[in-house]
C-alpha cells in the first residue's frame, strides 16, 4: 500500500532519492501502540509499507512503568508491521506524551548590522532559546519559530535574504521532563532500534488531523487519549502552545465501573456501546443490563437506565473540559493574542456520542470531530482516530514540520534534535 503525503510546508524538508532502508514511526500511548513502516519517495512523500497495532502493556499516562512489558509490546507491534511490509527496520521516530510536555515562549534578538539574514542567523537564535530551556534541566522536544520580524517591521514567514539591523524571533520551545523520555529511549534501544528522535504527540496529532486552513487561521487540536487529554494550538501555520490534562478515556471507564459497581472490562463495553454525553428524552426508558462484580458473564444481576450512564460519563468529560479551559486561560500570551477560531477533537474518547456538541457548548467555538488525514490508502486506518498521531508523525518526517528543519550546529553534528536527526539519517541513506 502507498500513501502520497503532502510535500513539506516549512523551510526544511527531506531530500529523498537513491537507495536506503525504510524507517518506522511509533505512536506510544497509554492503551495502545501504533506503528507505520514507510519508505521516502522522491518528490512524493512516503510510501507506507506496513502497519501494526497492539494494546500497550507497561505504560501509564504515556510513561513507561514496566520496561520489560513495554518492550514486549513494542516488539510485538514492530513484528506485526514488519510482517506486513516484508521489511525489517532499525530506525524509528517515536511520538510520545510522556514527561508532561509544556510550552516556553521567548523572544530572541540577533544583530545584523545591515547585512542579509542567513540560515546561520536563524539557527543561532533558535539555539539560544534551546540552550536557555536546557539550562533548567528539562529535555527539549521541539524548537519552533512562531514569529520573525526585521527592525520592528511586519512578521515575515521567511526572512532569509532580507537586510536589516536586528532580527527578532518569537520562539516556542516544547520541553518535557527528561527522565521519562530517557526511559522511552532506553526501551526502544533495548528492542535494537536506532531512535532518530521523539515527537510531542499533540503536535503530531495536529499534523495528522488539521487542514491547511485550520493550521493557518488558528485551531486548537484536542487529542482525548486513554491516559491524558493533550492540546496543541496552531496559528500562522506554526505550533504556538501545548498543554495536557492527565485525565482521559481510562478515567471515564473507571468512573463507570465505580458508579455501576461493575468491572473495568464491562464498564469499557458499556461506554463503547451505549456511552454518550447528550441527554435524550427516551434514555430513562432504555434499561441496560450490567453484570455486577462476581456475576457470571451470562447472568447479569444489575440494571441501569441509559440516563445514569450518560450522567456518569458527562460529569467526567465536563470536568476534563473545565480544567482544560482553565489551563488555556492561564496559557501563553500568544494564545491570548491569537485565540483559536475552532476546535478539532480526535482520539478514542472524542468518539463518544455528542462530544462535539458538548465541546461547542463549553468552549463557545466551532468544533469538529476528526480522523487522520493522508491514510486513505491504508485499509482500516483512514477512519480510525487511533492513527491520528502516527499519521501526523509520518507527515512531519516527510518534511511537513513548519520550520523544524532549523537546528543549531551542535544538533547537526550530534544528531540529537528529533526531526533534524531523522532528516539527516534520510539524507545519508537516500
From TrEMBL:
UniProt keywords, alphabetically: Cell cycle, Cell division, Cell membrane, Membrane
Gene Ontology cellular component terms for the protein in this record: cell division site; cytoplasmic side of plasma membrane
All copies of domain SHS2, residue ranges: 23-209
Superkingdom of the source species: Bacteria
Any GO BP: FtsZ-dependent cytokinesis
Subunit-level organization: Self-interacts. Interacts with FtsZ.
Species, as recorded: Marinimicrococcus flavescens
Biological role: Cell division protein that is involved in the assembly of the Z ring. May serve as a membrane anchor for the Z ring.
Localization in the cell: Cell membrane
Gene it is expressed from: ftsA
Keyword check for Ribonucleoprotein: no
Family per record: Belongs to the FtsA/MreB family.
Membrane-related topology note: Peripheral membrane protein
Record-linked Gene3D superfamilies: 3.30.420.40
Protein name according to UniProt: Cell division protein FtsA
Pfam families in the record: FtsA, SHS2_FTSA
HAMAP family: FtsA
Amino acid at each position: 500500500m502507498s500513501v502520497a503525503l503532502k510535500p513539506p510546508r516549512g523551510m526544511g524538508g527531506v531530500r529523498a532519492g537513491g537507495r536506503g532502508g525504510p524507517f518506522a514511526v511509533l505512536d506510544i500511548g497509554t492503551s495502545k501502540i501504533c506503528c507505520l513502516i514507510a519508505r521516502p519517495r522522491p518528490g512524493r512523500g512516503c510510501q507506507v509499507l506496513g502497519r501494526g497495532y497492539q494494546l500497550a502493556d507497561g505504560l501509564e499516562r504515556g510513561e513507561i512503568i514496566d520496561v520489560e512489558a513495554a518492550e514486549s509490546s513494542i516488539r510485538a507491534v514492530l513484528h506485526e508491521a514488519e510482517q506486513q511490509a516484508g521489511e525489517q527496520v532499525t530506525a524509528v521516530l517515536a511520538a510520545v506524551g510522556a514527561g508532561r510536555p509544556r510550552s516556553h515562549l521567548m523572544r530572541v534578538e540577533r544583530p545584523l548590522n545591515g547585512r542579509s539574514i542567513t540560515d546561520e542567523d536563524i539557527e543561532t537564535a533558535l539555539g539560544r532559546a534551546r540552550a536557555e530551556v536546557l539550562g533548567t534541566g528539562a529535555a527539549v522536544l521541539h524548537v519552533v519559530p512562531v514569529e520573525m520580524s526585521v527592525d520592528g517591521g511586519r512578521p515575515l514567514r521567511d526572512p532569509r535574504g532580507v537586510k536589516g539591523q536586528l532580527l527578532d524571533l518569537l520562539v516556542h520551545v516544547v520541553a518535557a521532563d527528561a527522565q521519562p523520555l530517557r526511559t522511552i529511549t532506553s526501551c526502544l534501544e533495548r528492542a535494537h532500534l536506532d531512535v532518530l528522535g521523539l515527537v510531542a504527540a499533540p503536535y503530531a496529532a495536529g499534523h495528522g488531523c488539521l487542514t491547511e486552513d485550520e493550521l493557518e487561521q488558528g485551531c486548537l487540536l484536542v487529542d482525548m487519549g486513554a491516559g491524558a487529554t493533550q492540546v496543541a494550538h496552531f496559528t500562522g501555520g506554526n505550533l504556538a502552545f501545548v498543554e495536557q490534562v492527565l485525565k482521559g478515556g481510562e478515567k471515564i471507564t473507571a468512573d463507570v465501573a465505580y458508579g455501576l459497581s461493575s468491572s473495568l472490562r464491562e464498564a469499557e463495553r458499556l461506554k463503547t456501546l451505549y456511552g454518550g454525553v447528550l441527554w435524550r428524552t427516551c434514555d430513562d426508558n432504555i434499561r441496560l443490563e450490567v453484570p455486577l462484580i462476581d456475576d457470571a458473564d451470562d447472568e447479569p444481576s444489575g440494571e441501569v437506565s441509559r440516563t445514569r450512564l450518560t450522567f456518569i460519563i458527562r460529569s467526567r468529560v465536563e470536568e476534563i473540559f473545565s480544567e482544560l479551559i482553565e489551563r488555556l486561560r492561564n496559557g501563553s500570551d500568544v494564545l491570548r493574542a491569537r485565540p483559536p477560531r475552532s476546535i478539532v477533537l480526535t482520539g478514542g474518547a472524542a468518539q463518544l456520542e455528542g462530544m462535539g456538541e458538548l465541546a461547542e457548548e463549553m468552549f463557545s467555538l466551532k468544533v469538529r470531530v476528526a480522523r487522520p488525514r493522508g491514510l486513505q490508502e491504508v485499509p482500516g486506518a483512514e477512519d480510525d482516530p487511533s492513527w491520528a498521531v502516527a499519521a501526523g508523525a509520518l507527515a512531519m518526517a516527510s518534511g511537513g514540520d513548519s520550520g523544524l528543519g532549523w537546528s543549531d550546529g551542535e544538533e547537526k553534528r550530534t544528531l540529537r534534535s528529533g526531526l533534524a536527526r531523522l532528516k539527516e539519517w534520510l539524507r545519508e541513506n537516500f
